[in-house]
Amino acid sequence: MTHLEKPREVMKRLEDRLKHAVKGRASIIDLVLVALLADGHVLLEDYPGSGKTTLAKALGDSIIDDLLDDDIPSFRRIQFTPDLLPSDITGVSVFDTNSSTFEFRRGPVFAYIVLGDEINRTSPKVQSAMLEAMAEKQVTVDNVSYPLDELFFVIATQNPLDLSGTYPLPVAQLDRFLFKIRMDFIERDAEIAVLNTRMERAARSSMEGLPAVNRGEVVEARKLIQEQVYLHPNINACLVDIARAVRSHPQVLQGMSTRSLVLMAPALQAAALLRGRDYVTDDDVQWLAPYVFCHRMALAPGSGEAAQILKEAMAPVLDKLSRTTLKP
Amino acid sequence: MKSRPRFFWWTLLILWPALAYWNQSLITPLGGIPWWAGVGAAMAVLVWHYSTGQNFRCRAVLGALLLVWLLGNGVVAMLDGASSLSLALGSDRWVLVRQSLGAWLWAFCMVGWLRALSWRFPAGAALELAAAGGVFVIALEAHRDGYINRPFQMVDPLWLRGLDPSALFIAVGSLALVAVCVLASNRPGNRRPWWDLPLLLLLLMVLYLAVPANQVKQLFEKFGMGKPGGEENRLTPEGGLKTPGPASPNSGGTPDPNKKPNPDEPSFADTSKPKPVPVAVVVFQDDYEPLSGAYYFRQTSESQFNGIKLVHSNDDRFDRDNALGFPTRFHDQDAQPEELGMRVPSLSKFLFQPLKTRVALLDQHPRPFGLVNPLHYWAVSNPDPDRFQKAYEVESMVLGGDYRALIPNKAGDQDWAADEWSHYLAGPADPRYKELADSILAKVPEAGRDSALIRAVYIKQWLDDNCTYSLKSPSANAADPVSDFLFGQRIGYCVFTSHSACYLFRAAGIPARISDGYMVDAKQRGGGSSLLIRSSDAHSWPEIYLQDVGWMDLDISPKKNLEPEKEQVDNNLQQMMGDMARKDKKDRRPEENRPTIDLHQLTLWFLRTLLTGLLSALLLGWLAMLLWKLWRRRAPFWSTGREQARLAYLCVLDILSEQGVRRRPDESCEEFARRMSEEMPGLLALVRVHLRARLGPPQAQLEREVMPLLKECLSQLRRRKVAGWRGYLGWLDPTSPLRVR
Known about the structure:
- The complex is a heterodimer of chains A (328) and B (741).
- Chain A is an alpha/beta fold and 328 residues long.
- Chain A has two domains: 2-223, Rossmann fold; 229-326, Helicase, Ruva Protein, domain 3, CATH 1.10.8.80.
- Helices cover 48% and strands 16% of the residues of chain A.
- Chain A has helices at 5-21, 26-37, 52-62, 86-90, 124-136, 171-174, 188-196, 198-203, 215-228, 233-247, 258-274, 282-293, 306-326; strands spanning 42-45, 63-64, 75-79, 91-96, 101-106, 113-117, 138-141, 144-147, 153-158, 179-182, 213-214, 252-254, 298-299.
- With 741 residues, chain B is of the alpha+beta class.
- Chain B has three domains: 9-220, no CATH class; 278-582, no CATH class; 623-732, no CATH class.
- Chain B has helices at residues 9-27, 33-51, 58-81, 83-89, 91-120, 122-140, 156-160, 166-184, 196-210, 220-223, 418-425, 431-441, 452-466, 481-486, 494-507, 571-582, 599-634, 641-658, 669-675, 682-695, 706-719, 726-729; strands spanning 278-284, 294-302, 304-305, 310-311, 352-361, 370-371, 374-379, 390-399, 468-469, 491-492, 512-521, 530-534, 538-546, 550-553, 560-561.
- Chain B starts with 8 loop residues before the first helix and ends in a 12-residue tail after the last helix.
- The relative contact order of chain B is 0.08.
- Classes of the chains: A alpha/beta (328), B alpha+beta (741).
- Chain A binds chain B through residues 230, 232, 234-235, 277-283, 286, 311, 315-316, 318-319, 322-323, 325-326, 328, and chain B through 643, 646, 649-650, 653, 663, 665-666, 668-671, 688, 690-692, 694-697, 700, 740-741.
């Protein structure tokens, strides 16, 4: 664990800050942290006013920009609307009359943490611009590519109801998101706590006492986690078995891609570290699989929940893995 | 398309040909025809097996088989028309070929149809089961209503060998059920529930219980067989069964006595000649051709001259070489002949050889008879109480070699006392006997005058030449029948000839007597090992006594015969009876009734054995499982390293399983530990240590010491409250380690 002390420390600090800022969302905070450290993006599906902006903002606030000269802020929010244009996100080249040259003005994607609110409200044109940035970590304007920061993390949201006039993301584009998380209303006690601590949190000074992390520390932690957390071949085999079981399920039209399995690996490692282990177990698989796989499955019309199908396909595989650990 | 049958198709490859073969062999057991039916069925199963992988429509398969059937029959009909073929082959061979082809076609098409239908439709499967059952039903049809002794080719061989065919029926029934089970389990996989086989086996048991033994009837009345072992259950010489009539005690149509069924006391009274009845079957255990050309079976002897004829001697010393009663002792080297009141004269080992025969009596008989000279009698168990009254074994000393070897032997025995000599030489006072004997012996050449045998043979030959055999004798009612016969017309039967010979031998100074029993021509044996004795074979013959030879038969066979030839014995019947008599049942007393197979008892015995076996197997298995469980409990204390972590975790899981707590299938180990963490805070750490050893980096050391964790867990487990019986008796549950996940 010696090498992993540092990433664990980074995680702990982020966790503390986020859990202080957002009440009753511990599980989602964990998932967001896993996605951040696994270098993936998160799609939150929930209702307005459920604290997602608070979460994203708190995350942005927790990361200290230690590269002052690059002029990239730690947090930006984009509210997607139907009349938005790609340049509104990526930025635009403006003619500078003083120097008689085109100067690129960076759009809001140039940030460490980007909150894309109601991503399904905007046109596919804008969605694809956003998704290029997410996949390639760069934006292309006027045939010039501008790299985004290495720590580029998107939290997108969409409203599960009120779908009129929206452009739902197709499966291929949903594939860019590591997790799709469906949020439910928080519990009573947590909701009371939200109301009770309203004033303190509004002041935003409450988090001051808790240590933040540097951008460099997060990037370093990502690297270390991928290198140091052990992923047993049996777990990989187990992932493939789950994928095959899902693909052969009669109600599944299209199962998850191999890429999703590849993306799953760092997420598992981050999850293992979050739980204080330097190795991945089936418990991590069980925890993350629904968030990673469900939005990548295309089901036959009239089928049940993807989560249920996945659970059915996964249970025997994981049970077998647990049993093999008991054998000599 | 159903997947190809994997496991059981080869059982069909055995079953269907066997059924086809059986069915055909019941219809036409001729030559190779059943074999061709078997080949056809096997080919059908093979074709079915290899066609199931292909995408044939059912209709196409059925149609193709129909086409094969029509074509095949057409070809046969066409060949029938072509007269040249049947001419070339010979018409009988052609019929065989034609029938074989027909059987092949029948089996191939029927089995093909059934298989194709059964593989595709549930109703087809039922049809196939019905067809297979039908083969058995047809085979057993003659035995409906529980009659097991109808004459039928399946049971006849058993009955003839004296075996109870109940076992055969049980076997056939079991085979039928096995066949049905095999067929039922050959249905396509998705239509085969797991309880198929147990259900069918249960059916089998129920069937055994439902057919009580008393429903098995024996059809005696209809075929006139009478009760097993009864009087009327006898075979007639024609091989058929005698129709029961009023059993007359004097049915033994011997030529001499009609007052008695046995040839004991000969009398000169005339008799009519009823149909001969089989009396006994003699089975030779070795090949033997008698010198005289006939087998003599001696039952009694008469040597006491009473003034007219020879009668049994009341004196203990004479003629004690015949058994007085039936043997009761089973074969035993120590059995002494004296037990039956026998006293056998010493016989020359160079002239005689031992021969064993088995006699099975078909009729009541007052005393045993044996091939001359009987030495020992032993009881044997009755090979078939339905057929035979009694059976015994005789060890005889039979004369081998050549008569010429006997020429030097002196008449009589040197050890005889004077009264013994006079007993065997006593004859009628009539001087004509002496004169006749002397006149005959005058023709004996000088060299042979000293030989008792040559003199006796000369007398025999004279009688042969000068007597006429007839069952009606003019001398029968004379006051002195022998002298009336000998010095009269000389027309008579064996009693006359033997008495005449005996008196002449005695007049010539050769000790002689008359023996009674049966005489069978050696030709009748016909190379087989058994000999059927009929009532018409009863005979009496003269015997002379030679030193070292003892009593030797020297029978008179008159050249002139007024009687028709004796009816020939059917050799097949003779051999069949011999086969029946030969069967040995070592563990049975001769008079004991045959134990019947009781289906109920058999089933109960089977169930009891099954139950006992199952219970003891269960008990043993339970003990073994408990031991295994105990070993798993102690194993972590005896191991080290990574293995210890696993064993420690297993040990804790075992105890939890015993207490009724198990990981759910959709739960991970850690989730389970978290679920248990309230009661067992130590478990999560133990799980982590275990999982790190199994899923962690390969060279990693154990995270923590296992032993303290295990001890902590065990102490927490001890404090754990367990509800219900598991709290006290959980350790008795042997299956708890099996349910650990």
